[in-house]
Structures are given as C-alpha cells and as structure tokens.
Prior knowledge:
The complex is a heterodimer. Chain A is of the alpha/beta class.
Amino acid sequence: MIAATTVLELRGVEKRYPRKGGDVLACSGIDLAVAENEFVSLIGPSGCGKSTVLSLVAGLLAPTSGSVLLDGKPIDGPGPDRGVVFQQYALLPWMTVRENLAFAVESVRGKSGLAANASDVDGVLDLVHLTAAAARYPRELSGGMKQRVGLARALLVRPRVLLLDEPFGALDALTRAYLQNEMLDLWEHRPTTALMITHDIEEALLLSDRVAMMTRGPGGTIARVIDVPFARPRHRDAVMADPRFARLAAESLEHLTRELDLARSA
Amino acid sequence: MATVRLAPNPVAARRALSDETRGLLFFFLSLAVVLAIWEAYVRLGLATKLLPAPSAVAGVAYDALKSPFYNNGENDKGIGLHLIASLGRVCIGFGIATILAVPLGILLGLSKVATRAIDPYVQILRPVSPLAWLPIGLALFKSSQTTAIFVIAISSLWPILLNTIFGVKAIPNIYLDVAKTLGTSRWETLRRIILPAAAPAIVAGLRVGIGIAWLVIIAAEMLTGGTGIGYYVWNEWNNLSISAIITAILVIGGVGLGLDRLFAILQANVSYAE
Lengths: 266, 274
C-alpha cells in the first residue's frame, strides 16, 4: 500500500490570547497530521482549546508559535480550500437556501483549483436532500435542515479539507443521529479529508478514522490518538453492535473523565 | 367522546366589534366633540377675531385644495406648487445626506480608529438645532434656496450616520467569518453581507432622517422665503388667514405621514429574521 498523502499538518502549534495581566494559553504542543480522505475527530473536555485548533486551521486565527500546513504550505489566513461547517449554521438569513449556496459558488468563482459552478448547487442540494427546500429562507428550516445547508455550502466548493466545528452540537438527539447517518452515507459517495471538533465520543467513533483526544484546558494538547477500526461503508447499527465500539467508547470516556477530574482538582 | 358545551361568553359577545373598529369609532367621536366645541366657542364670540370656526376652515381648505396648482405670480401660488417646491428641497437635501452618511457610516462602523477619530464631531454637532445652521448656510452659499437644502442635509445626516454605524457594528462576526472562509472579495462582502445585514438599521435611520427633514423644511422656508409650504404658512400669517394655515398644517401632517409610511414599507422589505 502506498502511504497516503498528508493534506493537513499541525506542528507544535500553540495559541495564546493576549490579555491584560498575562496571556491566556488556549492550546499548546499540538501535533497532528491528516491524510488524504481521512476523517479525524478532535475530542476533549470543554475549554481545552479544541475550537481554537479549528479556527487556526480555518485561518481565522494565527498560531502564536508552530505551523499549520495545508499540502505542505503554511496557512495564510482563511480561504475556500478549507470548507467550514459552523456549529450555529451561519446561514445568511436574507438569502434563500439556493442563494446561500450560490453565494458560495460566486465567492470562489475564478479562483484557481476550485471548480464550482452554478449547476453544482443542484447536485449538492440533491446530495443533502434539500431540493424541495431550495426556495426557502433559513428561518423556515429546522435546525437539522439548516445544518444540512451548512454542510452543502462547505462541500460545494470542493475544499481540500472540511472543517466541522461541533456540527451537530446544537441539534436534538434524534436529528443528530439522523444527520450522522447522512454523513456516513455522504462519505461513501464523496470521501473528503475532514477535521471535526466534537465532545460526543460516540459521534467521533462513528464518523472518524482516527480520534485525537485532548487534555484539559487551559492550554490543552493532544494526549493520545486512537485508530477507529471499523471498516467502511459503515452503518450505525453494525458499528454500535461491535464489541470494540463499547471498549473504545469506555476508554475514551475514561480519558475525558480523568481530564475533567484533574481539571477540578487543579 | 363527550363534547363539552360552553355557555356563550357574555364578554366575548359584547366584543363583537374588533378593538381596531372600536378605536376608530372613538377617534371619530372625539373628533366630532372637539370640532363641535370649537365651532360653538367661535360662534358664541368667545374666541379672538383671528380664530376661524372649523366650518370656515373647511371652506378655505376646499378652495385651496380644489385648485392647488394655480400660479398668479410670485406671491400668489397654489398650495400644491409650494408643496412640490418643499418636497423637491427635501428630496435633494435628504438625498445628499444619504449619499454622505451611508458610506461614511459603513466605513466608521468597520473601523474602530475611524470611529474614535470622527466621534467628537458627531457628538458636538448632532445636538445642534437645525436652525442654527441657517446663518452658516447663508454665509456659505449666499442663496436661500441652497441654504434650505443645506440645512435639510445637515440635520437629517446624523440619524442616518449613527444608525448606519450601529447597524454595521452589530453585524454578527460569524457572517463575516463565512465570507472570509469562502474567500469572498471585499466588494462582494460589502454588497452581499454587510449591506443586507445592516439594511434594517440603515433604513430605520433613513426613516428618522426623512421625518427630521420634513420638520425642518417648514422652519427653514419660513426664514428663507420665496416658495415652499413653510413660506406659504408664513405668507398666510401675513395675510392673517388662520384658516389657510390650519389647512397647510393638515397638508404638512398628511405628507409627513405619507413619507413615514413610504420608509416603513422599505423597512419591511429589508428586514429579515435570524
């Protein structure tokens, strides 16, 4: 087997926020490599700096030290080669679903390497099963539908990496499970390199190829990375029934609980 | 399943008329009472000679509004011609204010440094009465026509400017993050995100601005003279025709209401729900 190409790489990444009376350390010593079409999740207790890591990769923040590389080149600000799915959907409320997607297409038009055109909008609407809702405004959609638009918008420009910031965190349990199934399905049709932030262990195990677990904040780092052994195509029931799933979930939970205990006693 | 029958609610029955209809009914009732008292007060000879009875006002108003566009030379023009002159000035002055205040407001809203730099000007000049600008305008332009427009522009500028700054500042960061991560150009970000996101606040500012412009034009025209509904009011005062002045007041109020409604419609068109 040929070694897979590394698409995204973080090397000794540290981020400090300047504050009066001393900087606040958000994360430190982050080393992580994501291969082509690999799905990696970053989980950790709240306040560990995992969302900061995503913002660094998105280019919305710059690291204090260390480097974030995309295809070997340092990231210099945000750009459409990294599609972001926001936790709060971030759809533009004055545009319909179709206009929101077309806006993404128009934004990247003429930029090299990104081949999005207006006809892709129909394709991606079909992909997330939203063709019937194309003319609706975000306020007329349920949370689950909104996030499908968010996902469609990020996929539309065919980014090198998909960045998912707790994408299902704001949804109810049933909708979340439904969308996770859709994600699995989507990955069979259209594998994409992805980095997902989550605090849901089962979600991470279900969707990812590898799960990176962070230590407690402030200044969290990656404590260990586990390989998720389930073969693709995956199905929720089969994964959940696998005895390895329960073992990995228990291990991960133990790690997170220990980090939380340490945080409390610190 | 058993059906529960409710006895007719006596309160509900009495409220057969909607609140809206009842409100309207009371409005007409109170108007009739006020007009009746006013009419009686004048007819009983209790008022000064200058104050006309409502019936007399109605007669004058009918004549004035029957042929609003007659033109018998400099000092004898129909109320419609004066109205058009005033509306023209308001349009130009308000237009100038909008063209200046909206782009400036966006710039200031986006830049903390620019906001700090311009803030003292805004804070000092905003509370100044529009009429204080009249002599400045006359000195600057040496023309009463231009001065009236100048005063309109400078007094309707502030609410538009402040609302635009506020609207731009209040744009949630996440919308701008969307543009950044999509690599949207600066111009497209302005056109497709900043403007529509701030539009409700900007139009609210325009609505306040047009209201102020219409308030100020009357006073400005009283002082600058020539044409305009403000001048008409002043001229009729010189003619001691209170009836004509009352007619003008009703016309001014009606036009003001119309302008406000116009911007209310625009406001409804640019508003959006999160």
